[in-house]
Amino acid sequence: MTESIFVENLAKHFEKVEAVAGISFSVEQGELFGFLGPNGAGKTTTINMLTGLARPNTGAIRIGGIDCTNNPRAAQHLVGVVPDESNLYPELTGFENLCFCAALYGMGKSERQASARELLDVFGLTGAAKRKFGGYSKGMKRKLTIAAGIIHRPSILFLDEPTTGIDVASARQLRQLVADLHRTGTTIFLTTHYIEEAERLCGRIAFIVSGRIVQIDSVENLVQPLKDKYVVRISFEGVQDDLRGRLSESFPDLDFENLGQGKIRVEADHPVPVGPLVRVLEDCGAEVSEARRMRPSLEDIFVRITGIEAGAMQKEKEKMGAGR
Amino acid sequence: MKYWIAFWNILAKDMRTYYLKPPNVSWGLIFPLAWTTMFFIKSGAGLESIITLIPGVVAVSILFGTTSMLAVTVTFEKKNRSFERLLLAPIPFELLMLAKTSGAILFGVANAFVPVVIAAFLADLSAVAWRVFVPAVIMIAVASTFLGLFIAVAVSEVFEAQTFSNFFRFPMIFLCGLFFPIEKLPVFLKPLSYALPLTYGADMLHGAVHGGHTMPFALDLALLTAFCVFLFVASLWNIKRRWIS
């Protein structure tokens, strides 16, 4: 296997803010690599440096074997970029936007028109081909932006938050398209704040927090420490107090985490005794509505490593997306 | 990689989405027409005097036409991030910016010929030295476009680009010798006149239309070329510094 992306000691600061602080990683050819982190962690700055839109202060970059350290634009013919915000031309139609993007890569007229038609069909946008991009829905815009990023058939694709702010059905369809692209051998560098999305799609994942990679491994290895754990999530009503003290007293061998809004997460090295737990909660005046056994997930690992609640990170990002 | 495909498509896209839009076409026609009429009425002379107005209105039409459009095609696209798409394209940066500015140059040249066409119906233009006039128009369009680019990349908002443009445009109109001969300007303003690209374009236009130039055409052309190179290189440097930083 050869490296599609190689990064060593990459750093970037904006005045006094250290956006990326000496990160190193590599992505193998054909790999789907996830880059996860909260807002402001340095994900987009990293993509910008890898694609030639920003210059690193220090470090080395190799894209597709080409040294881009001193010439950030040297490998642009190899890469496709789907930015976190759709940046196509609102006054052009979907078809025209795709043809224009293909022309930027030197594709001839008949070739770019054929590719544009094919992609519009693949992304289910043939019916909207003659409509102006400015009138597209958010989901359609994301789809066309991804189509524009791959129209020149790049061997390496950078996807920055591809499913942020779009409806569930469109997000699902996009994930399928990303998986299909990966199957065709395209190397994909995916940034997302949807941990489930990364877990489902990516082979390896890097967690980035405050410009530093805090963990990098395959999804399987990341989840391994929690694999033998038993996790139960209990939902209840009627009590506002933090019940962790009372529960820990009754069940010293269990770990409790208050998730807020009447939810408690219970973790143990052995099966969780749900019945006695429910009884203790009811003795405290709580009305238990649900006790669900959970599979330890990447989200648990992310929270454990970063100390950041994934749900809070997701909400914050969506709020930002809605404000745009 | 066929760079000319990218170049042509960037130019064609800009022409279609910006320059050939009805408001811009009408503005490109009305603006020079208004300037011609205004100066003609002010001169109070007969129709035969319209020829003396040509250098002024041609230069002003080019200057305003080109610098106004760059604020839209560059600053606006940077603001809505579609300019990033161009920066990601695997074409030489210099070629990309030439493609992005070619539309404005053509728009400026087209604007320049509006007053000429009007004058052709009202006066005898047979004495005009077209072999000097046409290169002068092209070079003024190139220099003004690159000045517009220089301004557009120095700001973040479209309104800032328009305001900042006026800071250059209005003093330039009055100091470049189009309406007041440079010899009659106060001594302290004369060096400023010679630091403006339009001074050399205006000199060529005066020479081509009524033989009233003060410098050799070759010198005018050489200095205009130097201004174009300086403004283009400075703009590219600024883009790299500010937008690919």
Q: Strand count, sense and closure of the main sheet of chain A?
A: 6 strands, mixed
The CATH C-level name of the largest domain in chain A is Alpha Beta
**Overall mean confidence score, pLDDT of chain A:** 88
Largest protein interface, residues of each chain: A-B, 28 and 24 residues
- Uncertain regions of chain B: pLDDT < 50 for 5+ in a row? none
Quick one: CATH superfamily of the largest domain in chain A?
P-loop containing nucleotide triphosphate hydrolases
Tell me the Rg of chain B in angstroms: 18 Å
Terminus-to-terminus distance of chain B? 26 Å
Number of domains of chain B: 1
Shape type of chain B: globular
Helix content of chain B: over 70%
Number of separate structural domains of chain A: 2
Q: Give the biggest beta sheet of chain B.
A: none
Average pLDDT of chain B works out at 89
- Strands of chain A, total number: 14
Strand order of the largest sheet of chain A: 6-7-8-3-9-10
N-end to C-end Cα span of chain A: 41 Å
Q: Tell me the overall shape of chain A.
A: globular
Write down the CATH topology of the largest domain in chain A.
Rossmann fold
Q: Any low-confidence stretches of chain A, pLDDT <50, length ≥5?
A: none
